[in-house]
Structures are given as C-alpha cells and as structure tokens.
Amino acid sequence: MGAARLVGAAVPAVSPLLVAILLGILVGNLASLPAGWGPGLGAGSKTLLRTGIVLLGLQVSLATIADLGWKVVLAVVLVVAVGLATAVLAGRLLGVRPGLALLVGAGFSICGAAAVAAADGVVDAEDEDVAVALALVVLFGTLMIPAVPLLGGLLGLDDRTIGLWAGLSVHEVAQVVAVGGIVGGAALAVAVVAKLARVVLLAPVMVGFATLRRRQLRAGEGAAGGTAGGSNDVTLPPIVPAFVVAFLAMVLVRTWVPLPEQLLEVVKVLQTLLLAAAMWALGTGVRWERLRTVGGAPFALAGITTAVVAAVGLGGALVA
Q1: Is residue 86 part of a domain?
Q2: Where are the transmembrane segments (predicted)?
Q3: pTM score, two decimals?
Q4: Considering only CA atoms, which of 17, 157, 94 is closest in space to residue 4?
C-alpha cells in the first residue's frame, strides 16, 4: 500500500487507511479480480487488521495520558460513551442499520478508520457499511479541521484548550495533527495525547461490542431452537477478542518498557502498512451499486454524532 502512504504523506489530513480502502473499491469495481481471491482477501484482511491494531498499542503510553490529569481522562471517557450512545440512539430513530450505527459510533468517538476497522471484526456489519462509515469519517473529520480552530478563536480559547478540544472530538489521528498544526503553540502536543487517550478505550469498547454480539447470537439461537427443525449450533465470539488482549499488552509494554524511538517509528510504519493493506482488501469487496442506495440517513447520523462529540469535547476542554 505504498500509494496510500504517499498520498497520506502529501496531504496530512488524509489517512492512508482511507486512501487504501478507496483504492480497493476502485480496483474491485473497475478491474476483474479472480473469483477465487474473495475468500483469501477476506481472511487475509482480518489477520492484517488485527495485527495492525495490536501494533497500534505501542503508540500509546498510559503515563503520558495520566499527565493530562484526571479531568481530561474523565472527559475522554464521556466523549466515547456519549458518542457511542448518540450513534446508537440516533441510528434507531433514523432507521440506520444497527451495524452501521455501531461503526459510526466507534469511528467518530474513538479513533476514526482504525476503530471502524476494529469494530468490523466484532459486530455484524456489511462490507458496504464499513465503506460508508469510513467515507463519513473522512468527510466530517475533514470539516472539523477548519471548524475547530475557527470556533476556538471566536470563543477566545487559548492554544492548549483548542488543542485539547481537537484531541477530544476530531475523528482521525491525522486530522487531529492537522488541527494542531494550524493552531500551533501548545496545541499539537496536547491534541495528540488526548487523541491517544481515546485510542486506549478501543479495547473496552470492543469487549462491549463482542458481548452485545454474543447476546444477539444467543437470542437467535433460542429463536431457532424454538421452531421446528431449528438449529442451535451457533459459534459465539469470545468476550475478550485475542487481538484486544494483545493490544492492551502492547500498551503496557510502551508504558513500562523504555523503547528506542527508531523502533517505535518502524513499528508505526509497519502498523500503517498492515492496516492499509487490510483496508484495501476490504475495499475490493465493495460494489458501487450498493453504495448508491445508502440514502441520507447515514449522513444525518454522522452530523448528529459529530455535533454531540464536539459539544462534549468542548465542555471537557473548558473544564480541564
């Protein structure tokens, strides 16, 4: 996925993951891939994805997050919790598929494309739902890049507060960096650390999603068993997925073990390549004709979730 990294480097607000899935969609719709590639791409994308998520843990140090103070940590938890709840409730009111609503909630409240991809491995979502969620992440996250500095200036906020607001509310890490770069001063450092604090919550949220999925499968199993000829052979996903355990282990390693900066940079590049490759493989299975039937409800859901996350993030930044 060298092309994705080149474009991402040229335009800092664009995530290589988003570029990769767009390239995958183009290839899947404009080129004729061998029919036998489908199962292999699907299985390979999950392996690459989960490995990339595990390596993402090495970018997060609990000690650095703790330095922000308990008020910021509490604000991070509130942003994620309220963002997820908003996406689920608004999704029901708007008639959005539950899987897509969960993907939007994860992407908008935690860490953008990586959270969408991680959630896709746990919840029951269509490939098109993933593509739509990623498109919404890049669209609304990009709108936040000029909006946060502009509104912060109009509100008379200092650089640190604007940076903290960005870290608490902007969707993608790359977009947070873009906001911090625009504001300058102390904004960039605090924005990135606050954003990484949201990344840590990827683990408990995925556990919650897995628990929800188990309940859904058990309910379906009971319904099937209660009908003539019904089958109750259902494989339940683990409550704590293995990649989540490994992700947390990497966070602890980064927190307690001194690691050379050169090693961390190499791991960061490898992590991006793995996630981008997984996104490309996923994109090849998405079809234009199905994306065109999405309608306006997901956009309304994204707008509502963005507004709520931004409002909660601003409140947290002002209090902290």
Answers
A1: yes
A2: 6-27, 72-93, 100-119, 131-157, 164-190, 234-257, 269-286, 298-319
A3: 0.81
A4: 17
Domain residues for the domain of 163 are 69-218+238-259+296-319
Least confident residue range of 30-39, 113-122, 131-140, 142-151: 30-39
The whole-number average pLDDT for the span 291-310 is 91
Tracing tokens 């942003």 back to the chain, one arrives at 79
Q: How many domains are there within the chain?
A: 1
Axis crossing angle, helix 242-256 with helix 202-225, rounded to the nearest 10: 170
- State the Cα angle at 204 between 311 and 244, rounded to 5°: 130
In a domain, 3, yes or no: no
pLDDT score of 8: 46
| Cβ 139 vs Cβ 305: under 8 Å | no
User: What one-character-per-residue DSSP string does 221-266 give?
Assistant: HHHHHTSTT-----PPPPSS-HHHHHHHHHHHHHHHS---HHHHHH
166 located within any domain? yes
Which token pair is 101? 């609503």
Q: From CA 227, how far away is CA 229, in angstroms rounded?
A: 6
**pLDDT at residue number 6:** 44
Which residue in the block uniquely carries the two structure tokens 């990339």?
Answer: 52
Is the C-alpha dihedral spanning 67, 242, 236, 41 positive or negative?
Answer: positive
How far are the Cα atoms of 121, 124, 164, 200, 205 from residue 217, in angstroms, in the given order? 15, 10, 40, 27, 18
How far is residue 75's CA from residue 240's CA, in Å, rounded to a whole number? 25
Q: What residue ranges in the chain does DSSP mark as E strands? A: none
| C-beta of residue 153 within 8 angstroms of C-beta of residue 166 | no
Q: How far apart are CA 142 and CA 144, in angstroms?
A: 5
